[in-house]
Amino acid sequence: MATVELLFSALPEHVRTARLVAAAVARRAGVDEAVLDEVRLAVGEACTRAVGLHMSHGLHTPVRVSLIEDEKKFSIEVGDDAPHRRFSLPGGTLGASGPATAEANGGRNGGAVGSGLVEAEGALLPGARGEIPEPVPEEDEGDGEMGLAVISGLVDDVEVTTDENGGLIRMSWPTTEPVLP
User: How confident is the model at residue 143 (pLDDT cuts 50, 70, 90)?
Assistant: First the structure.
């Protein structure tokens, strides 16, 4: 089992790097070329969500991404350190009670949320291709739900676990024989 681990500061400009690394490792692991766009989008959504949570909670710890190549599947785990509260998706309830699987019957990305600008240490930075939402107050849970709904619409095998110490989104795709360069 080969694993690539990526830690990055919770800044919007690093989301694109995580997407590119995930796609490159997925391709090398044998994920079907037709699915690579979904891998990129799902990782972008998960990392964007983690960055937004870190920024809205004032956390300075890095976002964690693990790319795991097993014999017949490729998994990506995106972890954050933000405390989570319960909320529900069309496929079930997620929150502090432990693991839950999000299986929404469809999720569409209706475009960027907010202005695409985020505040980082007093400066406004443009979001990567308008994907990065502005940090939102804790009481507004709509962005977290939307990001998870989009992910569950892109990925068949999704598991989301959360508690007061952070959250983890685990996504998996089947692999074929890896194509070595």
Answer: low
* The model's pTM: 0.68
Measuring CA to CA, which residue among 159, 143, 30, 31 is closest to residue 92?
159
User: How many Å apart are CA 13 and CA 129, to the nearest integer?
Assistant: 10
User: How many angstroms separate the CA atoms of 110 and 149, rounded?
Assistant: 11
- Quick check: 77 pLDDT over 60? yes
Give residue 158's identity as a one-letter amino acid code: V
Q: Smallest Cα–Cα separation from 147: which of 176, 171, 179, 118?
A: 171
Cα–Cα distance for residue pair 110/146, rounded to 1 Å: 9
- CA distances to 10, 20, 71, 129 from 17, in Å: 12, 5, 26, 13
Residues contacting 86, CB < 8 A, separation 6+: 93, 94, 95, 96, 97
CA distances from 109 to 1, 46, 153 (A): 33, 13, 9
